[in-house]
Amino acid sequence: MSGDISGLVGYATHPPLSSRELNCAEDIKKRRVLEQVPPPPLPILPLPSFSQLKWQQREIIMFLHFGVNTFTDSEWGTGHESPAIFNPVGLDANQWVNTAVDAGISLVILTAKHHDGFCLWPSKYTDHSVIRSPWKNGNGDVVQELVDAAKARGIDVGLYLSPWDRHDPRYGHDLPYNEYYLAQLQELLKKYGSVREIWFDGAKGANATNMTYYFSDWFSMVKELQSSINIFSDAGPDVRWVGDEKGSAGSTCWSTVNRTSLSIGNASIVDYLNTGDPRGTDWVPPECDVSIRPGWFWHKSESPKKLSQLLKIYYHSVGRNCLLLLNVPPNSTGLISEKDVHRLGEFRKAIDIIFSTNLAEDCLVKASSQRGGKEGGFGPENVLDDDHLWTYWAPREDNHGEGDHWIEVRAGDKGLVFNVIRIQEAIGLGQRIKKHEIYLDGKIVARGTTVGYKRLHRLEGGVVHGRNVRIRIRKSKGVPLISSIGLHFDPFWHPNMQGPE
Hints:
It is built from twelve helices and 20 strands. The protein is an alpha/beta fold. The protein has an eight-stranded parallel beta barrel with strand order 1-2-3-4-5-6-9-10.
């Protein structure tokens, strides 16, 4: 054959790819891309709901205990109080809400009806309410005033409706009282717009009339009327009592429990409520309820807790994977007392002073390993960003040995001066950490068990100075996922003067 055959040679050496070969090549390219972006690890069940996550991020919410007890200097009313004593002539729900907003609080919960049975709204199912009060000539509605004030400032409302009713004659008669209670639930949840938390108190006097509450009916009705609401009780289903009224969770505190082990008003389960259960099948995080004063209702003779007490409560609640429900009771005029407003302002300012600066931010962060390698998106640098839920450090899953996972903050030559260490887990994928230790330049400075949404270690030895802070995860369910780390200086913490944590 004559002529130039170079083209033929080229054709013979590099024949065109078949459609099958082209598809294979594309698959290889796609696999390479996918290999560069590893997926998140599988979650560890159970998981929080969207509403529970939003609730947890509030950190501090406010309780408003207000009613006839405010005017009788009592904590538990008898049910025989005359509605005529309820006359808060200066009531200003805007002042309540402004106090909350100034303290960084986004949810306020009002005792719409306490154990005395007096209703702060004009219920059509009883006249033992504001209807028979001289306040606003019987035309007042405390619930509506709070709802309006909260809406104006863009915060949320919750309601407390006591199951125990010392006034209503239907109490003690199962069917009539449960019908009455459900009717009032429907009033509150249909008339006043969105309610973010409903509070079912398990408290009842030792000599109270026997009564069976139809909790399942109540819970179903609540979820039917407002599906995004969080239901609080000793047994959840969305939020559980922490087991005390001191504002203190267990040093081990799981958001998980077995709801089949819980019952409302059962004093024998308080330890279980306090610590939770690492084998729990239900996500029911704890709420720490405590009052800014000794009592729940306002009493002229009482004063608010010291700032140091409130900070200790914060470390033992929010700092132990809980939400803090702080009661700030309005007085008989219908206002939050100036002493309480001032103390609450001090509390918020102190929290901001302590935690507004993260000394770890300008540091280098290293880890034992990371999922997907350096470009995998799960590196240790994630613990210093502003997302404390959905970005996180994840180690490789091939490190199966207990204690093999660690993350370290490395400072420059000047080192770091701090006395608080903050650790947060990516709880959107489950609570995992069972045991952890913290080292400063190779010396242990703190140790603990659970972490959860937030764990705060206020160092018992006070202020420390060093260069390298290593957090070592000794035990966890699956690989630990740490979403945030903080090193902070608390100028209010003086362990030699205030005693141990």
